[in-house]
Amino acid sequence: MTSRKFGRNTDGTFGPGNPGKPKGTRHKATQAALALLDGEAESLTRKAVELALGGDGAALRLCLERIAPSRRDAPVQFDLPKMQSAADAAKAAGAVLVAVADGDLTPQEGAHIMALVETYRRTLETTELEARLAALEGDAA
Predict the structure, then answer these.
(1) DSSP letter, residue 85
(2) Is 105 in contact with 78 (CB distance < 8 Å)?
(3) Per-residue DSSP letter, 17
(4) Domain of life of the organism in this record (predicted)?
(5) pTM for this structure?
(6) CA 11 to CA 1: how far, in whole Å?
(7) How many domains does the chain have?
(8) What is the pLDDT of residues 7-18, one digit of tens each?
(9) What angle is formed at CA 124 by the lines to CA 89 and CA 99, rounded to 5 degrees?
(10) Residue 58 belongs to what domain range?
(11) pLDDT (tens digit, 9 = 90+) per residue, 50-83?
């Protein structure tokens, strides 16, 4: 149920109304810019390369960003103890801290790995609790 024609439903979702533009529709200004650049990509690229080779810092940065974009996520390797119980998470966390302190991992990489360790620890802990509960229920029956 909606309180108004274009309002929100009682569950907070939007009711019927203007669906907006179809997905993938481009703004008029974007369409105009693309029309102006149509067929000029090769000459613009050549000019950017010429400027970069001539020492233009902005053009050089632009070209290098296209050739070798910055990596957002890279695999890392370091020793991590095997986690078979929730108690092993403390050892794994210690190994991550040592790797960060030794410079084998960046603090950001360490934080991401710690989040993975914590998620896995919770999974192990839940599994252990389920097993203990099943054993108690089996004893009670």
Answers:
(1) S
(2) yes
(3) S
(4) Bacteria
(5) 0.49
(6) 9
(7) 2
(8) 677 887 877 666
(9) 25
(10) 28-67
(11) 999 999 999 988 888 888 877 777 788 888 889 8
